[in-house]
Design brief:
- With 146 residues, the chain is mainly beta.
- The protein has one helix and eight strands.
- It has an eight-stranded antiparallel beta barrel.
Length: 146
């Protein structure tokens, strides 16, 4: 019975993961897990990886593809960045908001699942008194459902 329950729980997870994408942005130290970026609308979740407990910045970003070709996806989206550790310092958990404009390109047609991700993203603090302009460059891998 336990194996049946475990199988019933894990099978939908593997099916959903079969359409996911994982990206790493080494210059910004972000790890990204996305729903299927080949769809018209998709969700991207990013976690900061350059620190263990100094900052657990998590960004949630719904994206919309504005143009899709066989070798590139051009997209836009908005985001909200949260940091759970801010509550320990009596600060707001919500850090700010961002706007994303990017592209994921297939550089080698023999490896269609490997993509280069480039993105420009202005970011504003939650109080809108300051901000910064980010650029992201990374490598993504698109899992395909078989």
């Amino acid at each position: 019975m336990k194996k049946l329950f475990l199988l019933a729980f894990l099978l939908p997870s593997f099916t959903a993961f079969g359409q996911a994408s994982v990206a790493y942005y080494p210059f910004n130290s972000f790890l990204s897990v996305s729903s299927n970026p080949n769809r018209a609308a998709w969700l991207d979740a990013r976690v900061q990886t350059n620190t263990l407990f100094g900052s657990l910045a998590t960004t949630l970003a719904p994206m919309i593809n504005i143009r899709r070709t066989t070798t590139a996806n051009y997209y836009v989206g908005v985001s909200a960045r949260f940091n759970a550790l801010n509550s320990l310092a009596d600060a707001d958990v919500l850090e700010g908001y961002g706007l994303h404009v990017g592209v994921r390109v297939v550089p080698l047609t023999i490896l269609p699942n490997v993509r280069v991700a480039f993105e420009l993203s202005p970011f504003a603090r939650a109080n809108f008194k300051s901000g910064i302009f980010y650029s992201y460059l990374g490598v993504a891998y698109q899992f395909n459902k078989k």
